[in-house]
Specification:
By secondary structure, the protein is an all-alpha fold. It has 22 helices and three strands. The chain has a three-stranded antiparallel beta sheet with strand order 1-3-2, with no helix packed on it. It is globular. The structure holds iron/sulfur cluster (3 copies). One iron/sulfur cluster binds next to helix 4, helix 5 and helix 10.
Length: 489
């Protein structure tokens, strides 16, 4: 049986706050500010150097750090920790400083309208940040921002994200932007559920049930109410904890800890799985497969053909882009629907209730848990996709810094042309990462299917074989595409 962090269970992981130094650090109001500050400095440097520095993308500090290094590091953070990036993110951090009118102090009055996010939209949950991620990725591909193309394009993209974050922080309350709209939120939340930080959880839920103030949610003397609308007493995964530590500071009963967990626990163990998360994973899977397919020469032919017929100026054709991503997500869902039709027990009643996102059905009983099980292979695929840029160009960061500091000979640096790995070795690393992700997905699906799929199926062994085969096929497809791409970035 997997370790669970169900609402009624005390977390069984390791509470980091038992260490007095960690506890003191997390109590400090400057804790998150000090995490955000270095990234804030780097990102404003990215903006200014991108606009004012050299137009050579590989020599510009803004493009070099963003596309050769940062994106790769964020994925490592997600897989190892979870939402670590959100704790130090300059986009949300900057907007939150302005919303709270302070860099770190506990203020009572906030700036802005403090509106609630409309409930009909909130029901779409993670589908909203997936939509903004799809839009941002399309814009990035259209303007060749991450190529990298013109450095100023990277700056304008970052300015666009910071501006929209600020706008939403000033219109809506708390971190509505992070929870519902940030283009990175669904990706970090889902892939981050593989990570080893469970987040902030209550030590004793009974204390919470009789707690009259609920300062962790409403805000108390020492801390703000949870900016992510997460009640630490009911969290059973790290999906929506931004690791900001406000609840830890606010709780008057010292009833909150910061827990470590075994890797994959937030994939395997949640007791309340969400359909919006499952659809988000399916669409993210469609997107990363699209990004692999579009690196093949055959895709250019299809895109050009469609553009000439639809009078669209150039790659990526929006119909092909959205069409292929949605088709791949629906194909994934379709295979799971087929498994549900073949294996669901006839005597089971799959009750229908709630709105369409919460509605229980035979399809949902299979699709939602099986899609959670796919998360490791989807995460591995996103990570592997970033590797060519890292291995081919990461060393350019040194000449890019030299160029920013005024060197005229930075482009002659041997580090500018250096590659950390050759193309065949990059492909080898990509396939290895996919293999590890696939094994992790097989393990997750094995645990999840044993607990959630087998009880509603006839032929327990057969449904498990079908579920595991599906994951293996996904992994094989991703690995095969990397071989065909030959380290294209
Ligand atoms: S959700 Fe987005 S804006 Fe918010 S902290 Fe995370 S990465 Fe930053
Ligand atoms: S303030 Fe503390 S005791 Fe009260 S509900 Fe929150 S975590 Fe529980
Ligand atoms: S207040 Fe607590 S539960 Fe909410 S995001 Fe911050 S650390 Fe996580």
């Amino acid at each position: 049986m997997a370790e669970r962090f169900g609402p009624s269970d005390p977390p069984s992981g390791w509470d980091l706050t038992r260490n007095p130094r960690v506890a003191r650090l997390l109590r400090s109001r400057r804790f998150q500010f000090l995490l955000i500050l270095p990234n804030q400095l780097v990102f404003w440097t990215v903006i200014f150097v991108g606009l004012l520095g050299t137009v050579v993308p590989g020599l510009n500090f803004g493009t070099a750090i963003t596309w050769y290094i940062w994106f790769c590091l964020v994925f490592v953070m997600m897989v190892v920790v979870g939402r670590a990036w959100c704790a130090m993110c300059p986009f949300g951090g900057f907007a939150e400083w302005i919303q709270r009118r302070t860099l770190w102090q506990r203020t009572q009055k906030v700036l802005g309208l403090g509106r609630k996010f409309p409930e009909p939209l909130a029901r779409y949950g993670f589908l909203l940040p997936v939509a903004t991620f799809l839009l941002l990725t399309w814009i990035e591909e259209y303007f060749n921002i991450a190529g990298p193309g013109t450095p100023s394009a990277t700056s304008w993209m970052v300015v666009g994200i910071v501006t929209s974050a600020l706008l939403f922080f000033l219109i809506f309350e708390r971190r509505t932007f992070c929870r519902y709209l940030c283009p990175l939120s669904a990706l970090i939340g889902t892939v981050g559920s593989m990570g080893s930080v469970a987040g902030f959880r209550t030590k004793d839920r009974e204390v919470c049930l009789s707690c009259e103030t609920k300062d962790c949610m409403r805000g108390g003397e020492e801390g703000f109410g949870c900016p992510w609308y997460t009640w630490p007493a009911s969290a059973d995964s790290n999906l929506a904890c931004g690791l900001c530590s406000e609840c830890y500071k606010a709780c008057p009963s010292n009833n909150i800890g910061m827990y470590l967990q075994k890797p994959l626990t937030s994939v395997i163990a949640p007791t309340r799985r969400r359909a919006d998360v499952a659809w988000a994973v399916a669409l993210l899977w469609g997107l990363v497969l699209y990004q692999q397919i579009n690196a093949l020469s055959i895709y250019a032919t299809v895109d050009t053909w469609l553009n000439s017929h639809l009078a669209f100026p150039h790659y990526p054709n929006p119909v092909a882009y959205m069409g292929l991503i949605v088709a791949l997500a629906l194909l994934t869902a379709g295979v799971m629907w087929t498994i549900s039709r073949v294996f669901a027990r006839k005597d089971m009643t799959f009750t229908v209730k709630g709105n369409f996102m919460e509605r229980a059905s035979r399809f949902r009983a299979y699709f939602v848990p099986l899609t959670y099980g796919m998360i490791p292979v989807v995460g591995a695929d996103y990570f592997a996709r970033q590797l060519p840029k890292f291995f081919q160009h990461a060393t350019r960061i040194v000449p890019a810094v030299q160029q920013t500091l005024g060197s005229q000979t930075a482009i002659k640096s041997p580090l500018y042309q250096m590659r950390l790995l050759s193309n065949p070795h990059i492909v080898g690393v990509q396939v290895t990462i996919i293999a590890i992700g696939t094994l992790a997905a097989v393990w997750s699906t094995w645990k999840i299917s044993g607990r959630e799929i087998v009880p509603v199926s006839r032929g327990g062994a057969a449904v498990r074989v079908a579920s595991l085969s599906l994951v293996l096929v996904f992994g094989a497809v991703a690995a095969m595409l990397y071989v065909l791409m030959n380290a294209a970035d």
